Write the structure tokens for this entry.
Amino acid sequence: MIADREESILDRQYSNSERNLAAALREFRLRAGLTQEELADLSGLSVRTIGNLERARSARPHRQSVDVLARALGLSGPEHETLRRAARSRTVPPAPPGETAAPYRSVIQLPFETVDLVGRDDTIARVIREADERRKASPTHATITAFTGMAGVGKTALAVHLGHQLNGQYPEGQIFLSLTARGQRELTPAEGLRRLLRALDVAPEDIPETLQERETLFRDRVSRRRIVIILDGAASEAQVTSLLPGACPCHVLITSRTRLAGLSKALHIELKELDMRSSLELLERTAGAARVLEEPQAALDLAALCHGLPLALRIVGARIAARPQRRLTDLVRRMSREGCLLDELEYRDMSVRAALLPSYARLDFAARDLLHQLSLRDLPASSLSQVASMSGRPLWQAEKAVEQLIDLRLLEEVRTGDGRQRYRLHGLVRAYAREQAGRVGLLDLSIPGALPGSAPCVDRR
């Protein structure tokens, strides 16, 4: 009779297609006379997982987990299907009597915009336009935009700017997650999910242990929220795949030095260095228009020495603004001295050398050696056969090293006017690679066509 009464309760509670997993699982467990610990032993799932499911703190589990629970509970036929339907439902259980279910708190984590964006208007308009089109075409699916480019080109600044710009379309939150931990260590997917779940107000004790369970909980938490998520500094597709929402009205902005080609549904945008006009505009904004107009030729020279890299231009602008009595020509002279360029492109916590280091550190020996060899030759661009000759390796080995350099944005692939493939170094990458070549003694070698060696920069008055 007790069993019949409990079954009638279940029949009344689950009379439509939106049957709730938390309530269903608890009722079936109590009917079976099991504690959470006993059900955990029978199913092979953790006690925490079962507890989170019954408190509606976990997202919908995988079908295999539901089937395991059903077998452990002795369910079959209609009851088994009841549990499956409940797991597929997105219904949130009603709050207990006398309590009001609290809405999700809006998450606001975007950094303050501390830099001016220059030369990116077309890119910003494109992202907003395509995001709007994708949102209208698939309102329940996440929009993903991936920005790629060399170190210091402004990927993070652009993503943060867009995060603020998209606030109106995604009013329920903006999350910023750096994918680089202390010491330049790559954040693991499990740790990344832990931080995302904490940002979404999941208590530390309610965060599951396994990666798969964290993925499921994260995707459930964002499934109905219009939010922007910035994943900054992705090293690979493997690092971000677990951090991407499933069916949700979100926009994910990813920055990476490597093109994440495995994310086939993402909008991929490659950021290039600024042209001379935009470089001068950025100098005006950071150093002050009056200083630039006062010494126009020196401003042109400084922009040229920065090779269009926004980070370098901001460093120069900050140094000019910090020394209002110094002339721009003095900084041109200092930056033009042999071996001194990267020493001058440092200001407080900004450094071109430090920005390039993580990419260089990921190179294997062959790619690093090839980068050194390329930096010692004053060639605007090189063919693959020239590159192989410089490296002293077979063509296929040289090609493999070239691919690694391109992936890390330390080498650029270009096409000549007649369609031939060439490879070139950015000016600041060349300066950095020559420094590293000097450290391993390559500047002392007799290399035909090589640039002369240089002493370390001294006298920074």
Q: What stands out?
A: The chain is about 50% helix and 10% strand.
